[in-house]
Amino acid sequence: MKLVNEIGMPLSTIVIANLKEFVRGRSLTVSTLPRLKIEIEKVLGQAIKDYKQGGVCVSGFRWE
Fold this sequence. Notes:
The protein is mainly alpha-helical. The protein has three helices and two strands; from the N terminus they run H-H-H-E-E.
């Protein structure tokens, strides 16, 4: 309950959201820290890598 109070949502909301995520993604993650979705982490990671290699952003996430 301490964790539920820290997040600030009703326990039923957390359980339902995690159940939906578990069914959709076949995985379960519980954390009090915010986290990006895996797909966004991959895109952002590639953008950071390209930037460090001297890439210039042309539009959106396309680097040259």
